[in-house]
Amino acid sequence: MKPHRQQNAEQIRDRSKHKQAEARVKNLAIFPSENPYPVLCLSKDGTILYANAASASLLGEWGVKIGAVAPDYWHKLAGRTFKSNQTEKNIELEHRGRTLSFTAVPIAGAECVNLYGFDVTEHKKTEQEKGKLLHAIGERVKELNCLYAIAKTAAVPDVSLGELCQKTAEIIPPSWQYPEITCARILIHDQEYETANFKKTKWLQAADIIEYGNKAGTVEVYYLEEVPVLYEGPFLKEERDLIEGIAERLGNFIERKQTEERARKTKVLNAINEVFIETLRCETDEELGQTCLDVAERLTESKFGFMGDLNDKKLSDSFAISNPGWDACEIKEEQAKRVIFDMPLKGIDRGAMLEGCSRIVNGQETIENHPEHVKMPEGHPTMTSFLGVPFIRGGEVIGMIGLGNKEGGYTFEDQENIEALSIAIIEALRSKRSGVQLQRSLETNLITEQIASMGSWEWDLQSNKVILSENSLELFRIKPEMFDGELETLLLRVHPDDRKEFRKKTEEMISSKVPQDIEYRVLRPDGSERVFKSINKKYFDDQGNVRRIMGATQDITERKRTEERMRQAKELSDTLNELNSEIVSTLDFDEIVRRVLDQSTKALGMDLAALYILEDGYWKLSYGAGLEETALGTKNNMDEAPFSIHMEEADKFAVSDIKNKSIHCDLIGNERVKHVISSPLTVKDAAFGIMMYGSRDKNFEATDLQIDFASKLTISLSLAAETSRLYAKEHKIAAALQEAQLKMPEKLDGIDFGYIYRSATIEEAEVGGDFYDLFELDEDHIAITLGDISGKGLEAATLTSVVKTCLRGFSYQGFSPAGVLENTNSVISKTAPTRSFLTAFFGILEKSTGLLRYCSAGHWPGLIKRKTDIRKLNGENTALGVTDDAKYQGDETTIGRDDTLILYTDGIVEARKDSAFYSEERLIKVAKKLKQADSKKLARALFDDVASFSNHIFADDLAILIVSLASTK
Known about the structure:
Radius of gyration: 51 Å
Shape: elongated
Oligomer: single chain
Distance between the termini: 145 Å
Largest sheet: 6 strands, antiparallel
Number of helices: 25
Number of strands: 37
Helix content: 25-40%
């Protein structure tokens, strides 16, 4: 209710207006002849008693005079007013283009009614303009509300095109001039969305929805009843603008959604491709499962996740759990491993397997209050959101993937993405677990078909006509009016090289009872080439004959390119791995290049290869494949392209399309090539070589994978060349050192000795780490050493020198064998490289008594060969260089005049024949059978047996040292 004070004010204003009107009427009654507006007096029966001069034109229009009865409306008005004794106002009349408004006033006692007219034309126009303005404002508000409502709906996350179109159709009617008789329909992509009262009538307003310059659909508005004609039939101009705006916004939404969808599908396809690529790379299904889980987590931005199988007991076994999940988990590892197997199908995280459908649960509180929630073990990460997707194969649930804690929660798009990815994961795991080569099955292809361009078709065999959908016509780039339904017309789009096979397949399509899938290339009018796949389903008549065939055609060009890229990537990766194995298998650079050039040229699909090495300021063609022998050795100036390029910028990788360029043909061995891939060999950022591959095919076009392959290969060759150079230098030094370390005295009084050393033969002749030594401490004591140092080459040779120096130095100071090794270990542990260690036997033989005091540091302790048997010496100590505080325990024995001490390195007992080792047992058996002989002959006999056993192939260096007391005879 209004406040009392406000009511009083309004009443005062009303009374004031009423008094002003009465005063004006009285004034006009006093001076009617002077009134510019019509004034009339009518009796109660309608007779005109009086009319002023201003009323003359009105009487003329009515066709009456004073004293006559007024027209029917007016004489009835007079009777009604007199009878009611009430004034009537705002009685409008159009006269000569003006609007007159009359007031009928009963005159008491005179039995008549006075009519006072006013010209309200201008006032009426003002009111009309005001009304129009208010109406226009109202219409604009409706339009803005309409467009705002559409924009608001379009902004809802995950809203689909169908949802937006349906909502838009419902928004339209209230926004039109006659909402109660308005209905709407939206046609788009062969789908219809309409209001509940929709009915087609002749009163239609429509606008096209444009998608990337092409018509995608129509917005239609109908009136259900006839209304006055306005701007566009019964529709307003503003309504034309509004319907165009609606159509434009729907087109923009479609384009935005398609852009987002392409981005999403690209992301999903990349994830699918990554799964397939990793299937080829991963060694085990566990490793693949972990990789697939990582891909899914990245795709959905999840914090962690798991993948599980449904085992024979219908319980869940987790075979992959993300590292972030383990990191966030505080459950003890042993307990965690127990709870991830044989898990019942209950709880939010396992419900997807039980239901066989995906589920999303967002919000920590929602999860904890969920009716299926099961309390997590103590230490389990808190769940704030969850997405579960079952693995379904052949209609059966075989497992699931669960993802957790995406910030902001999971969306339906996340669910769709993982459902698409899950098919690839299932196929990948099946392939890995079955141990077969991965092939894209039809089930896997459906992933791509769901998100790729497809078109449907029908082939009526009775009329022999083909009907193509709009999408199919667009795929083939055929205008609808240009297609006559003939298969031959369609065949013109097929690549000439594929037409014969296409005909054959279409014939088989009719004759075969089994669906025939066809892959073929299509040439579009713009010259572009695409790859299509057509799948079909047959329909038979009662006699079993094919009556019609329906199917779908899909543009699989991108998939083919992806598959080809995957195939090429795998082949090049495998070849590169093989070549790298070849490269590291030898230190001979000449041999490396000979092995690499032929294989790499074939892998790249090129005709020839040339490797130039920088010598004395010239680029010398040093190695080649597919070249004439006479080309080798030719030289080129450094300023000739592309040599100058590599000299200026050694890390630049050049791909030179030289079809229309001038280049010296002798750069590639007098061969005229159309395309060149070149890459430098560098050391310390300076080019010392250039690898060039050439193709004579003018249509050859190198891919980034081929470029990357060539680049990586030249990096490996660069390292191999530098390694070979450094090895040659190092080997020379190491060989000199080892020669010095293996030098033995020609003779020692009172001692008979023999020795043999052989380096490994399955590797290049690299300097090994086996060593021995014999030297006199005094006239009665001889020091005996045999050792094996880890590693090879210069480092091993240098360490051998240090060890031999230590052993000699500490033994001269009077230490026992155990003390000598203990002190040597202290020095080695502090000075040798951390990865180095060695085993050694050190003994001191007293010639006069045959007493042998000895100690073994992780080495074979040796054998004592007597006349009737062989005894192993004792010794269980740590190798040298393992720890700097190691303690060593020595032992002693006596060597008789007919006894022999046999020492050896592990190269003897670990010599192989196939998978069998020579072994200590065989050594003892052979040594026991051998007759007593001088030490040199005994050493040779033992070595010959080892060599015979291993076919003279030694996996490791080997050394034998035989010592005995000299005969007194």
